[in-house]
Amino acid sequence: MAAERTQDRERERDRERAAPRIRLDLPRERRARLLPEYDPEAFGRLSERIARFLGTGRFLVWMTLTIVVWVLWNIFAPGPLKFDEYPFIFLTLALSLQASYAAPLILLAQNRQDDRDRVNLEQDRKQNERSIADTEYLTREIAALRMGLGEVATRDWIRSELQDLLKEMEERRDLFPSGGTRGSDVPDR
């Protein structure tokens, strides 16, 4: 019996030494990362702002002025003050770098706009479906009311029926005059 207890204790120790059980009902602990974390929404908003700025006339004016000043400076400035020794290679590099960053930023902003449009389209579609369902329901209700009103006695119908009844009574009075005691129940009383 003592040997069984010893074996049970050893088994428990082995279980404790083994890797801890993973609980699926709890979120994982955060691991340390090598790269810094960033907020994708903040980055997306920044890229949209940059893409909007790149599409404005203000950006085109400033870029044009910068290029004109650059070219004039490198043509007319004295040799030691020129910062682009080779004929405008640095300018070409700067412009291609700007273009290489502008294109992905514009695509990112466009993708975000497409996502927003998709969500708005889905909301509009659901709203249209609800409106159509409401309209169909109201149409059915109005049709049921019309059918119900078709069977209801209207004022004009009641008048015409009463007039017909009066005519019929007058015709009977003409056929059976009440002048005599014949047909009258007065003597029986």
UniProtKB/TrEMBL annotation:
PANTHER family: INTEGRAL MEMBRANE PROTEIN-RELATED, MEMBRANE PROTEIN
InterPro entries: DUF1003
Membrane-spanning residues: 59-76, 88-108
Pfam families: DUF1003
Protein name per Swiss-Prot or TrEMBL: DUF1003 domain-containing protein
Species assigned in the record: Streptomyces bikiniensis
Keyword annotations from UniProtKB, A to Z: Membrane, Transmembrane, Transmembrane helix
UniProt keyword Membrane present: yes
Taxonomic lineage: Bacteria, Bacillati, Actinomycetota, Actinomycetes, Kitasatosporales
UniProt entry tagged with the keyword Nuclease: no
